[in-house]
Amino acid sequence: MSKYLDLSIEEIHELLLSKKIKPIDLVEEAFVRINNNELNAFITLDYEGARKMALSLEEEEVQKDNLLFGLPIAIKDNIMVNGLRCTCASHILENFISIYDASVVTLIKEYKMIIIGKTNMDEFAMGSTSETSYFKAPINPWNPKKVPGGSSGGSAVCVASRITPFALGSDTGGSIRQPASFTGIVGMKPTYGRVSRFGLVAFASSLDQIGPMTRNVYENALLLNAISKKDEKDLTSFETNEDFTRLIGKNIKDMKIAIPNYFVSSVVSLDVLKVFNDTVEILKKEGCQINYVDINHIDKAVVLYQIIAMGEASSNLARFDGIRYGLSKTEKSLDDLYKKTRSEGFGREVKRRIMVGSYILSGENAKIYYNKALQIRDDLKKSFEKIYSEYDLILGPSSSRIAYDLNNNQDDPLRGFMDDILVMHANMGGFPSMSIPMGFIDNLPIGLQIMGPMYAEAKIYQLGSYLEKKLHLNLEIGGSNEL
Amino acid sequence: MNYKKTVGIEVHVELKTKEKLFSPSLNLYGDLANSNANIIDLGYPGVLPTVNKEAISLAVKAAQVLNCKIRKKMHFDRKNYFYPDNPKNFQITQARTPIGYDGYVEINDAGVIKRIEIEEMHIEEDTSKSIHSKERTLLDFNRSGVPLIEIVTKPCIHTSKEATLYLEALRELLLYANISDCKIEEGSMRCDANISISKTAELGTKIEVKNIGSITNVGLAIDYEATRQEELIEKGETLKEETRRYDAKLGKTILMRVKETGNDYRYFPEPDIPYLELTDEYINKLKKEIPTLANIRRQKYLEAGISQINVEKLIANKDLSDYLETLLDINLKTTANLLLGDIQAYLNKTSKKITDTCLTQEKIKDLVKKLDEGVISHKNFKDLVIDIMETDKTIDDLLKEKGIQNVVDNSFVLDLIDKVLTENEKVVSDYLNGNERSLKFLMGQVMKESKGSVNPKVANDLLLETLKKMKNKL
Fold first, then answer.
1. How far apart, in whole angstroms, are the C-alpha atoms of residue A429 and residue A389?
2. How confident is residue B461, by pLDDT bands cut at 50, 70 and 90?
3. Chain B residues with CB inside 8 Å of A205's CB?
């Protein structure tokens, strides 16, 4: 059996250009890999659609300067793909078929990429293990007893197990970076507004951002090139026209890097700290200027996240009411229709967050909690900006520990948030942040987080690519690719 | 001591935009149900709002004609509540930063100019329309997302007259500024009144009467409600805050629901719409675009010698007034008579707008000139009106074609004058003996005989000429 999908995308592109392979070969290979694994990476597969697209591409010239031409990609199941189910891993949208393409999906199609399916996730992206999915939870390809992280767990599994070189995830409080860390892939949460959110089912609108999940840094930058574009349909999107690969390979010697003391404090497990410190040593040797800094309000991110994300979520999820689409429990009275539809349709974690969010926004609470949180969020952003006025980038671990056991934290609602304690700042400030693999602990990968000021993705890729090369980790999962 | 009424009025007005407030769907009334509703208006998962700039500009103009201060930096808020006509189960509105505040509308209450103070006005989206039947409720999302402004007065209205005068003035302002159609019957203007009574300076319990069907009914509802409240208080009952509706057939307000305490809309800033900033330049530019408002037109018409009654008729018919505004260097009085007479009758009969007819500026100018000069009479015009309105032919061509030039030739008028003078020998001799007043009578008789078909100026000149000749003969 072929193993084209293990090749770099430049190599695949060469094969396509020289007509040694066709896009359909890649699609067939992806589906063989899906069928050989039981990773539950997908909620919906579109074999027929993917085949059709691949065959139609045979009629076209392979675009020479489009490295993404004909390559398979997986889309997180909270992003609309016309004609495909979009469940958000929820019972309430179990049979909801999208009637439009998200703006980001339109771009994916313009680049002639082939969408093979919709990936598993935490229900409405609420969770950090992907276990709140209404469907069978995805598992970590490195160890079937471990979670892949979440909420973009399915996308992470898909890329980590080399089913597709690319996947899209969404990140509200670490949902791209934490699963990337747990599965040994590269995940970028771009600057807020870099990628249009039109067609992404909103969880917390002011924090949500779609981003690329890939096998390596270069491919990540390439996919970001494709999906970042100002969109008239998303007022928070901005003019963006740059090549994110442009700094890759450039010298990093003079980079000034800040490490928040908080990121190396007792909130991080010792084994993760050790891997992190080893990575920092590489940079010191290279001549980077590294300082440990205190950042005002840095310890408040989880609290802010709980207030802001849940407040917004309680409003964003109100539209799922059984009246126009989705699950609908017809009852005699309107109140009963709402109650029955929503209590059956939503899972426990989603309901918990809607309840907390509604409480936070109620009456005087809005002033006490929500408005206060917005103020502190602003201060937090400013204190990060102050650091960025002196440093190029901020570094830390992507997660405070390695992937944990399946079915472990269902009864501790706070546990999941605490794991995202290091990644929420980027969402609060709108800053770009990426996770790349930095090492292994107990044969499980662990990620490094590189965070930058607004619009600094290219610089993040520069450092990420340098470290990736220097660390030269073997990220082939033992045996899982033997087809 | 009597109870004093205190009323605050909230008015929702639909803005006359091409598209909806947060989506590119068309803002059209009366189309097939759900034909102007896209995924945004239906609150589909994943959709985001965009802001219709035309709606913002109309709201800025509204704030200006209502003499409001304009907020230069503002945001939208989400008002969260569940109802089937509210597709996202939140409404995008402006709770904290209304675009306009601290304004006023002037009313003329029997010669006394009063200011009705505007607390604030804000922009928000309309809900969809529920159509209830016994079996079920249907929803029409054509209205979902239509731009509205809500205008809220201070509780500064104390009589039903003030309330109706305010609403009439408000309607006229918004209509003439081209902000809204203000058609209450089509729901593009909706009025709610908050009514309380009290014997002291402290306000009484507020009762809201929602969605009253006409301006007159707002006045009736206020008076009915004040009396009802007084009777209850006199009976020793305690009023509760509640929402009522006005039943015009019964002439009564009817309880809809008692207001629950802690009605909680969980407002928070809309995260999908960035802050909006208005520059002075933009605001001033919009100010210049506001068409001439009704009061200025009134003054101009009166100065042109148009009668008070005709002035009000013109103002009440904005299409005609707008048409008049486009005409320069013209006798406004004659034009107004034309427009309000046979032309309006024609328009009413054919249900046409004046701008949809063949009455070009050149044509009406020519008409007015010919009437003033006595080349044609009103009767001629009456006979020609359909051809004038429906064909491209010039007035001269029409006159030729119909052979009506001769109708107004002097011999016809002179014959009439001869007849009148012969029949009124006594009056004629009075006149010849110096009684100037007799002329008026004779003139009246000439007009009567001609049944209005001759030009008064021409007839008057000819009559004077004839009488002069007679005097000279004496």
1. 15
2. confident
3. 271-272
What stretches of A269-353 adopt beta strand conformation (E)?
A: 289-293
Q: Tell me the pLDDT band of B258, cut-offs 50, 70 and 90.
A: confident
CB B85 within 8 A of CB B139: yes
Residue A334 clears pLDDT 80, i.e. is over it: yes
- Asked if residue A414 has pLDDT above 70, the reply is no
C-alpha angle A352/A356/A357, rounded to 5°? Answer: 115
Q: Identify the helix (H) or strand (E) that includes residue A72.
A: strand A72-76
Inter-chain touch A80–B84, beta carbons under 8 Å = no
Residue B473 confidence (pLDDT) above 80 = no
Question: Minimal Cα–Cα distance from B26 to chain A, Å?
Answer: 16
Q: Is the CB of residue A367 less than 8 Å away from at least one CB of chain B?
A: no
Q: What rounded mean pLDDT belongs to chain B?
A: 91
Query: B268 and A361 in contact by Cβ < 8 A?
Result: yes
Q: Is residue A380 in a domain?
A: yes
Q: Give the chain B residue whose CA is nearest to the CA of A199.
A: B46
What is the separation of C-alpha A225 from the centre of its chain, rounded to a whole number of angstroms? 16
Cβ neighbours for A409, distance < 8 A, ≥ 6 positions apart: A129, A415, A416
Both structure tokens of B376: 């044609």
Q: Which domains does chain B have, with CATH numbers?
A: 4-280 (no CATH), 292-408 (no CATH), 410-473 (1.10.10.410)
Phi then psi dihedrals of residue A382, to 5 deg? -65, -40
SS3 call for A264: helix
Q: How far is B231 from chain A (nearest CA, A)?
A: 35
pTM of the full structure? 0.90
* A200 inside 8 A of chain B by CB: yes
In a domain, A97, yes or no: yes
What is the set of active-site residues of A? Answer: 76, 151, 175
Answer yes or no: do A205 and B267 touch at CB < 8 A.
no
Say if CB A100 and CB A129 are below 8 A apart: no
pLDDT, position B50:
98
Instruction: Say whether the peptide bond before residue B133 is cis (omega within 30 degrees of 0).
Output: no
**Is the pLDDT at B433 greater than 80, yes or no?**
yes
The dihedrals phi and psi of B209, each to the nearest 5 degrees, come to: -110, 120
Query: Looking at the domain assignment, is residue A483 inside a domain?
Result: no
- How would you classify the pairing of strands A256-260 and A393-397? parallel
Q: Identify whether the C-beta of residue B448 lies closer than 8 Å to the C-beta of residue B463.
A: no
Confirm whether A246 is domain-assigned.
yes
**Whether the predicted pLDDT of B406 surpasses 60:** no
The count of domains in chain A is 1
Which of B266, B267, B273, B276 to substitute to test the interface with A, most A CBs within 10 Å?
B266
Confidence (pLDDT) at B261: 62
What residue numbers bound the domain in which A264 lies?
1-477
Given an 8 Å threshold on Cβ–Cβ distance, is A198 in contact with B47? yes
> Are residues B82 and A321, on separate chains, in Cβ contact within 8 Å?
yes
Asked if A86 lies within 8 A of B274 by C-beta distance, the reply is no
Closest CA to A479 of A27, A181, A162: A162
Determine whether the interchain pair A236/B51 forms a contact, defined as Cβ–Cβ distance below 8 Å. no
* Residues 73-92 (A) with a CB less than 8 A from some CB of B: 78-80, 86, 88
DSSP assignment letter at B229: H
Question: What chain B residue is nearest to A371 in terms of C-alpha separation?
Answer: B268
DSSP B150-206: EEEE-S-B-SHHHHHHHHHHHHHHHHHTTS----GGGTSEEEEEEEEEESSSS----
**Nearest chain B Cα to A124, which residue?**
B45
User: Do B253 and B192 touch, CB atoms closer than 8 A?
Assistant: no
Q: What is the mean pLDDT of chain A?
A: 95
- Using a CB-CB cut-off of 8 Å, the residues of chain B touching A324 are 42-44, 87
Q: Using CB atoms, which residue from B48, B87, B89 is nearest to A198?
A: B48
CATH number of the domain encompassing residue A257: 3.90.1300.10
